[in-house]
Amino acid sequence: MEQNAKTQRQICSGVWGATACGLLWVTGAIAEEPVRLDEVSVTATRVERPTGDVPQAISVVGRETLADKKMFNVKEALQEMPGVLIDSKNGGSDARLIIRGAGLKATYGVREIMLLRDGVPLSDPDSFTRLDFVDTQDIERIEVAKGPGNLFAAGSVGGAIHIISKSVFDDTANNFKAGLGSYGARNLHLRYGGMVSDQQAIALTVSRREMENGWRSWNKFDTTQASLKHGIDLEKGGLLESEISYAESNVQLPGVIDQELFERFKSTGRQKQSSEPWQHSGRYSKVWFLNTRLEKEIGDITFKPRLYYNTWYHYHPITGAINETEKWVSNIGVDLETHWHHNKGTLVAGVTARRERTPDSRKYEYADVIKSAGRILATLSDRKGDLLQSSDAASLLTGVYIQESWRPGERWIIDLGMRYDVVDFDDTTMQYRKYDYATGSYKAGAGLIRTQKTFYLPAPKLAMSYRIAEGLNLFGMVARASQIPSFSELSDNPSLEAPISTNYEIGLKGRAHNWSFDTSVYFNPVEKEIVQQNNGGVTSYLNAGKTEKKGFEFSGRYVFDRNWDAGGYFSYTDYRYKEFTEPVRVGATTVNKDRSGNTLPFIPRSQYGLFAGWTQGGWRARVSTNTWGSYWMDSANTERYGGWDWVTNLAASYQWRGHSLSINVDNLFNKRYAMEAKKDTAGKVTYSAAAPRALLFTYRYDFH
Questions:
Q1: Interior CA angle at 596 toward 548 and 534, to 5°?
Q2: CA separation for the pair 256, 362 (Å, rounded)
Q3: Are 551 and 572 within 8 A, CB to CB?
């Protein structure tokens, strides 16, 4: 009994303490009878708090929901949230992520949104995020905080996504998993660990995922990941956790297709070529990751220092060039967080610093190409050719944050906080040659280019929650944040300024033993929003004058009995340019076109979905369906794409003792649609095809 109590205390402590003790259903050693609980969040405020008490739009995907996902990609966990779009061109570690319009300009990777894993930023200091070294089989829960007003989000207007891995102290997470599916999908995973003494625990995790994706050419993915976690219970309110991990990821990124190829895909379900010259884009990476954190209570003060380091290499063919980090990139950071628990609430304060160094990043020509009259018509491989440029770059982010979570009365919670970050960029590039979009060939470069920029990013926040009745909270907030331009954006346009996003939001949250709901209305004006523009094949970035984003969101769930539950979500948006003049190339000249009053592209007016779940004995099933409405394909609002309706996913499993068999079917009815449709200023329309129906069968054994 004493050991069980001790294990419970370990599992319920720390940043991941919300992990095991904040589950939607708590069973086993922690509770003899199933109890309906609210999820717990740490992401918006850095304070563990039920989501119903967080005065901000936040969503949590817990263990119960993740158990029904095949989790080849983070997108599978985040598909059923209002205001959130996530999809993947490849189905592997790449992702297209947008939260309330933030991230819209990214064609690869994640921008404008802070991603964290166990409190460690996965986003670079310039806000660019890669998902190469996230082991999706080792995720305990995911928290999503939308919009400005987040103590974790440095220089990010879109909010934060916090991926919390399985605790080293949680031996209920030990399992072996093997999966086999369509299009060459294979999945192997082993996680084993436990207490090696009264105070220490160790856990080893190894995962391997791969897909051939034979419905489309140049679409393979594989990754191998391994991690070792160590934890020490320091007694008297102390905990020390460390992790070291290694990952290799190889992702082929298929190109876009034109109208003719898109129609062919819709009739055949196959895509055997791309309509663009760059047929061999991809990202091939190796990553080492180290994270160690201490949590120590001394009276009313809790200290939470954290040190982390990661280093990575990549070979990254893109449009017009092949990127390679000749020397490994290094990223080191420290976060010194302190909590003071007083009789009216909690004061959180801290300082943080993060430095990234890219000592020798190079761009190369494509070695194997087909030409006509000097213009590149197609690549034949991703083999690198002559050197285009080399660069030495560094960025440094330093920040401070403070927030008082004050409870002036039994019904009130007031969060008053501020985060202030300073980001310094320093890049020296020697450009020997470059790809010229007008001629479709390589030509002489600009020589030596030096870029030095400093951004000052204040992010204040005031939020309040009032309990109207038991389980029913009204909240309101106003928050502001600035967005860091990425290195690639600054290289294209060194005069870019940091956008400023202000969010005004009110909402209502309800929690009960068998139902829950979240709803909110927001108004989000943005000054100097960075807009990505494709002008006759040339991608460029510029600041729009002003945009305005208005929206309504709802999500809810109802548990009918111990066997059935159902729910859904809905969002309505009105995102418009208030002031924006778009440069458009007409022949040899550039003409400025006024887009003021137009709707932002790609974001539909409506987004919605439904789900239903059933359990009976060892049987379990869940079906979900999602819709992304029609949207404009360009900033000029000249053509719409119809979006996609009721794309349905199914999961079913049977568990007997420690064994379980499951099947996941994505796109159950085999709908053929585009995950993204664009139109550039020259009138060229392109599509990125979405994956057809795919199945995965999985066997799992839990070591209990």
A1: 95
A2: 25
A3: yes
Please say if the pLDDT value at position 22 is more than 50: no
Which residue, 610, 501, 623, 604, is CA-closest to 555? 610
Q: Which residues contact 495 (CB under 8 A, 6 or more apart)?
A: none
d(CA 679, CA 601): 9
| Cα separations in angstroms, 563 against 14, 61, 520, 559, 612 | 33, 20, 30, 8, 11
Give the type of residue at 523: F
63: phi then psi, degrees, rounded to nearest 5: -60, -40
CB neighbours of 56 closer than 8 A, spacing ≥ 6?
44, 145, 146, 147, 149, 150, 463, 475, 477, 505
SS3 5: helix
DSSP character at residue 216: B
Query: Do the beta carbons of residue 17 and residue 41 sit within 8 Å?
Result: no
* CB distance 529 to 543 below 8 Å: yes
Nearest to 625 by CA among 642, 608, 613: 608
Q: What is the model's pLDDT at position 31? A: 36
Closest CA relative to residue 160, chosen from 435, 522, 459, 455: 459
Grouping H, G, I as helix, E, B as strand and the rest as coil, residue 232 is strand
Q: What is the pTM of this model?
A: 0.90
36-61 pLDDT per residue, tens: 447 788 877 888 888 999 999 999 98
Model pLDDT, residue 400: 96
Share of the chain above pLDDT 90, in %: 66
Is 72 exposed, middle or buried, given 0-12, 13-18 or 19+ CB atoms closer than 10 A?
A: buried
- SS3 state of residue 14: coil
Q: Which of 335, 325, 237 is nearest to 283 (CA)?
A: 325
The torsion angles phi and psi of 358, rounded to 5 degrees, stand at -115, 90
DSSP, collapsed to helix, strand or coil, labels residue 408 as coil
The two tokens of residue 233 are: 């219970």
| pLDDT score at 126 | 65
Instruction: Give the burial string for 365-387 (b: 16+ CB within 10 Å, else e).
Output: bbeebeeeeeebebbeebebeee
Q: Which of 657, 407, 659, 525 is nearest to 148 (CA)?
A: 525
Backbone region of residue 320 per phi and psi (left: phi > 0; alpha: psi in -120 to 50; beta: other values): left
Paired with 622 in beta bridges are: 613, 651
Residue 66: in which H helix or E strand, if any? Answer: helix 63-66
Q: What is the 3-state secondary structure (H, E, C) of 254-282?
A: CCCECHHHHHHHHHHCCECCCCCCCCCEE
Chain position carrying tokens 């030409």: 371
